[in-house]
Write a structure and sequence with these properties.
Length: about 100
Amino acid sequence: MAKVKITVVKKAFHQDLLDEYLHPDSKERGFGICSAFKEGDEFIVGASCPEGFCGWAWADIQRDVMAVLFGNGFPWVAPENTAITCCTDGFRPVTFKLERVEEE
């Protein structure tokens, strides 16, 4: 049975965008790099969000997870049955590698 391995490959932080666009009320609370993941974190999933996974990130990458899960790869990404995707947090995005894996 196929699954998808999600690996956190990169976390970014755009201080320049925060300085220019973050609402002043949010600045008072602090706004740093995403704390939901660490680079290198791995999750094995089927068609549902894994426990402990950020719900916002799952909503952003779920479509790509399903594509990889069902063998509909992205021809511009190597190797086959792999995707690179990210959450849509423009201030502090997290990039994920998705890989289709076969489990018994």
